Amino acid sequence: MIPHNRPLILPSDRAAVDAVLSSGWIAQGPAVRRLEERFVSYFAGGEACALSSGTAALFVALKALGAAPGDRVALPSYSCSALLNAVFMSGAVPEVVDVRPDSFCLDAQLMRRQAPAARFVVAVHTFGAPADVAALSAPGRTLIEDCSQCCGGRAAGVPLGSRGSAAVFSFYASKIVTGGQGGLIWSASAELVARARSYRQSDGAEHYEPRFNLQLTDMQAALADSQMQRLESIRTRRAAIGRAYLAALPHGLAVQAGIADPERMVHRFVVLAPDLATREALRERMAAAAVGCIVPVERFELLHRCLRLDPAAYPVAEQLADTTLSLPVHMGLSDDDVALVCDVLRRFAP
Fold it and tell me: Domain residues for 39?
């Protein structure tokens, strides 16, 4: 079986982790700081704070930005429940908004109706597609870019994550760069990141306030940092796999907008079928060829369904849940694996 996702761990990654183990310092320490400095270098400035997960990064970013109980936070419904968890942990109130049918990202036009009082907005760059940060920004509204699925991606030559008040990343096992677990906040504001670090450090502070231990270990940081050093080759390989799939795509199937953009980091290659029956037929055909595919966001995972809101108010998210299928596009794929997936696509008749 060709798995839908599998991390590629190279000898250089093992050596980086071994160096930490040999050092005798395995908790948060020098390797964590090196990973943070890697992101500062990547963004050519600012500051970074590594944390235990992407959920922790979003939660701490909200806290550092001053989110208070009762504040409204706009979220795209076509996303994962980790966003809801982070918002609820901060004491704020989630406002779920439907997404665009082309990019699958939060629809700025619908925000006026579905989240008119939102003080914060989380712009998720879904599967690597850039959210419309300019349209989502407004006076009196604080924007956080969720870069968990787009690390290494750019828009108009600028790294995604550069334009919000803060950017959050995830290093979970299925992400572009992984430490097994982990997350990170980057911001141009050193003051904001200092507040995040203060919250991360659960003890030893002269001034007491409730905090929680959300630290990343040096072992996880070393693995993620090792992979960050080959970020461009990761982007290039994923783009090449995406182009191969795109060339093999039969008439009747579509893909997420911008998948062939040269600046794109292809986190997921998501096929858009005309209906549920066609999506399931493609999934069965891939399974018969031993190709692992997933529905990227199942209907029950849609955030409006998690909150028991009326599905009729979120028609695009509902449609995407029924018609999308994610093909394997990870770094562990061989050229033969890619050729097999392409062959199944070419032979599929919607």
Answer: 11-228
